[in-house]
Amino acid sequence: MEHDFELLEELTEARGVPGYEDRIREIVRREFDETVDRVRTDAMGNVVGTIEGIGDGNESADGSESDDGSESDDGSESDDGSYSVAVAAHMDEIGFMVKHVTDEGFLQVDALGGFDPRVLRAQRVTVHSDDGDLTGVIGSVPPHTLTEEQREKKDEVEDVYIDVGLDGDAASEQVAVGDLVTLDQTTVEMGELVTGKALDDRVCVFQLLEAARRIEDPDVTIHFAATVQEEVGLRGAQALGVDVDPDLAIALDVTVANDVPQIGDESKQVTEVGEGTAVKLKDSSVITNPKVNRRLRDVAERREIDHQLEVLPAGGTDTAGFQNTHGAKPVGAISIPTRYLHTVTESAHVDDIDAAIDLLVAFLETETGENDYTL
Prior knowledge:
alpha+beta, Elongation Factor Tu (Ef-tu), domain 3, six-stranded antiparallel β-barrel
C-alpha cells in the first residue's frame, strides 16, 4: 500500500458495534488532532473534524483564525453563510448483544446489523464484558450426528449459541445481558488485496483520515465525519444532516464486488476489485445527485484516477442520511469495491483504496462552492 497499513490494521481490528464505537472514536480523535482545525463529538458519538475553508473568511491577514462564531456553545455548527461540505464514513461494525445466558453457560444474542447466518458457523468471537474480554466460539454440531431434518434446516441468527468455555454459574458471573460480542479476525495483506473484518467501513474511515491529512487550505469548509450506527439505520448521518447542515455531502463506503467464481452473471458483480474506486449512482437508500456524480467522474478522468460506476441493487449508506434530513441536499458517494461483505474475510484491492483516497482529495481540493448542483 502507498499509505499507512498499520493505521488501517488498527482501525479494522478494533471493536465497535453500533452505539458502542468508543474504541474507534478514540483512534479517529487522535488522528484528527494533528490534521484538522477543530474536533467535536456529539451526543450520539459522531466525531466531526473540521478544516476551515480559506475562501470563507476564516483566516485573517496575519494568518490567524478569526473568531466568527462558527461554533455555538452547544458545539453545533452555526449558520454563518460559509459553504461547507460534509464527508462521512461510518465507524460501526456488525456484531451482537447478549440477550440471555443459559443455565448451561451458553450465550444467546441479538444481532446488531445484517448478518448472513450461513457465515456464522464455527466462528471465534470476543465477548466484551465489564470484567474484560472473553473468547468464545459459535459452535457447529458435527455432521456425523445431524438428523436429516437438522441437515435441511435453514440457518437463522436467533439459533446462534456462543460457547465461552464456562459452566452456567461462572458464565452468569462474568457475562451479563447487554454485553457486546464481535467477530475475531486479524487484518493482513493477501497478494494485492487487504483482507480482514470490518473493512466495512473502517477502510473508508481510513480513507477519510488520509484525505484530512492531505488537504491543505481548501476553498470551502470541510467537515470530516466519522459516523455511528450506520449498520442499524444510518442514524448517525441523519443526526449530522441536521447538526452540520452542509451544502454538499459525500459519503464513503464499501460496495459489493461479486467478481468471484460463484457469481456467473457479470451483471450481478456490481463492481470488480482492481478496477478502481467506484462512483455510486444508486443503492436501495439513495439515488445520488447526477451533477455531483458527474463532477466526481470528471475529476477522476482529468486526474487519471481509475474508477468505475456502481449501481447497487440492495443496501443503504450514509449518503441517504444526508440527502433530505434538513431539507434537500446534493449528495454523492465514493465506494471501495470489496469482496465477501459482512464476513470476517472482507477483501479490497490496495489500488482501489489508493484510488478512492486520490479521488476524494482531488474532488475536495477543486470544490469552490460555486458549482451548481441544483436540478
